[in-house]
Amino acid sequence: xxxxxxxxxxxxxxxxxxxxxxxxxxxxxxxxxxxxxxxxxxxxxxxxxxxxxxxxxxxxxxxxxxxxxxxxxxxxxxxxxxxxxxxxxxx
Length: 91
Description:
mainly alpha; 3 helices; single chain
């Protein structure tokens, strides 16, 4: 009675091996799902960045307000009748 139990146990193990460790097993599925989740998160961040860049390009193409704002803050430019005053910020 002991040998049939051992043989059946070995058969169960042999049949379970592909399910857990094989090419399309649960461990591989879990690994691929983890990669998919990471890829989706990266894509979401990139889509947000792309949409903000697209909005900025649209503003720069259509309106002068965005160009003027960039000139003021990034280049420190002022209009001819303006005075630039810089105040220190408290920390």
